[in-house]
Structure formats: C-alpha cells, structure tokens
Amino acid sequence: MKAIQITAPGELKVVEVNKPVMKDDEILIKIKYVGFCGSDLNTFLGKNPMVKLPIIPGHEVGAVIESIGKDVPAGFEVGMSVTVNPYTNCGKCASCRNGRVNACEHNETFGVQRNGAMGEYLALPWSKVIPAADTTPRDCALIEPMSVGFHAVSRAQVTDIDVVMVIGCGMIGMGAIVRASLRGATVIAVDLDDEKLALAKQVGAAYGINSGTENLHERLLELTGGLGPDVVIEAVGSPFTYRCAVDEVAFTGRVVCIGYAKSEVSFQTKYFVQKELDIRGSRNAMPADFRAVAKYLQQGTCPKDELISKIVTPENALSAMEEWAANPGKVFRILVEF
C-alpha cells in the first residue's frame, strides 16, 4: 500500500509498504485523511528528539471501517466514520495505575515513537478506534488535536465563573477555547496573528489580544477588573509564554502547560508561593475528550473549513511541508487525502 515516510531532515517521500494484517481483536480501517501536526513538522525539520528516522508520520486520523475482527465487541460497523486514539498505555506505570493512561510513562504515539497513520490502511485494537458515525472522515481528522485542548481544560477544572486565558491559537489552543467556552467560562485568546484571533472568537473566545501589537498586561487588567485570569492555558511552548502564564495568572490561579519549550525556562519562583498557584502539565487526551470533541463537531457550529488550511495528495505532501516550514504561523492544519 501507499504511505508517506520522512526519511531524513527535509526529506519526505511516498513509499510502498505492506498492507497490515488484521488480528481477531482488531479493526482494519481505510484511511481517508491524516493531519500534519506540529510534531510532524519538527520531525521534518530534524528538531524532534523523540523520533528515530525513517518514520511514517501522522496521528490525526479520519477513516472508515474496512473490516472487523471476530473478537471485536458490538458497536462497530463496516463503513462507519472513525478516528483513532494514537497513544499506547502499558497498564503498569504510575500513570496507568492512577487511571491517567494518557500520560503513560511508556507511551508510544503514532508518528513519534512508532510508525504512524499516514498510509492507506491501519489495523489496530478495537479499543483504540473511536466511532464518530455522524462526522465526515475529513472532520474526524480534527478530533485528536482539538481533544488535547479539551483535556487541558479538564486539567484546569474550568467552570462557568472562570476567566480563562489561552495563549496560542493553533489547533490545540482552539480546542481549549472551545471547551472552556462550552463550560461557560469567559475566554481571552492571545496570539500574534489577527486572523487566528478572529477565528478564536468564532469558536467561543469573548476577547482576543494580539500580544505583538497590544500591551498584554494592561489589557488583561482591564478585562479582568485588575485581578488577572483565573486560568491560563499555555499552548505555544516558548520560554516567553511560560513566564507570561505565571506572571499574568491571578492569585490562587491555575496554570496548565501543553506546549513543550525547546530550551530551559527561568521563573520568578516567588510567584509560585505568593500567588499559591496550581501549575499543571497536560499531555495528550483521554477517550472522553475524543468523544466530547466528536459531539461538538456534530453540533454544526464549528467553522471546520476555516480550520483546514489545505488538503493535499500524498505526492504533494513534500511541497506542503516545505511551505509550512517557511511560514508556520499561517497554518492550522494540512490534511493529506488518501
């Protein structure tokens, strides 16, 4: 079958690989769309230390069920639209024992620690296949990245009385904005791009702040009555945004970090104590987060077309990645159509 492989930094090509053989407890899915995410871009640029090349990228999947193993329980049907939970969990580490399988110490994500989904077929355990019958396969490819933002909102324990600042309006940040808004919170979106801020308002943000052209601190004080946001969700992964989250969050606030900073970050640690902050990491997503995103997409209020920057064939994937690398700030999601 046809698949996409990143063979070396800056090199991506279409290859032929064996079609997977389905086991009795597995489901064979026909891949329709796979999204390129930021980790795939870093892999392409040679900046992803968790990846060993060559690798098949991709873990944002929109597919249909091709066939079903004989030991798979009821609830799955041939032709059904599905997405994929692309993480593994060992069942033995501290995270798994505590029921937080999304943060498994030994997790292997598709396209990162193991070959991903960017091929024509994929066979995987039925428990990793998430039905989304009323969602198109194209839109199913949006579920995984948005679910990461949904999970961060759960980690922040957001309620309807909170003011939530989301730093970074990429796909994951958009997911956080949507989920916080659905919970009734007042959401402030922060980014450097006015187009992304406009889209953030479409999905639920009450306010947008361009931190490149506006004084972020003063605007936050103005919007929060001088208190600062109750929750800050960091969805960028830079030393500046990490420090900003701690500096701007309200006293006794919660900071949830999704982004991976590429270098060490120095903090005024007095704020940890003076503000009595809760600082939490947020990794991947839980099955419930996937289901919640699928439910949201089925409501028909999401501007899905605006979240998809481009749809390309496997043969055009290299040029699409090169364009994204040259101008990363202007891309939400590039989907590869099989």
Describe this protein's structure.
The mean pLDDT is 96. The protein is globular and about 60 Å long. Strands 3, 4, 5, 6, 7, 14 and 15 form a seven-stranded mixed β-sheet that branches. A six-stranded parallel β-sheet has the order 10-9-8-11-12-13, sandwiched between helices. Strands 1-2 form a two-stranded antiparallel ribbon. 29% of the residues lie in helices and 24% in strands. It is α/β, with parallel strands linked by helices.
Sheet-strand content, in percent, reads 15-25%
The CATH superfamily label of the largest domain reads Medium-chain alcohol dehydrogenases, catalytic domain
Helix content class: 25-40%
Order of helices and strands: EEEHEEHEEHHEHEHEHEHEHEHHEHE
* Count of DSSP strands: 15
In CATH terms, what is the fold-level topology of the largest domain? Quinone Oxidoreductase, Chain A, domain 1
Poorly predicted spans:
none
What is the CATH domain class of the largest domain? Alpha Beta
Number of helices: 12
Query: What summary fits the major beta sheet?
Result: 7 strands, mixed
Mean pLDDT value: 96
What is the structural class? alpha/beta
| Overall outline | globular
Distance N to C terminus: 11 Å
Domain Alcohol dehydrogenase-like N-terminal: 24-133
Protein name: Threonine dehydrogenase
Domain Alcohol dehydrogenase-like C-terminal: 172-297
Organism: Bacteroides luti
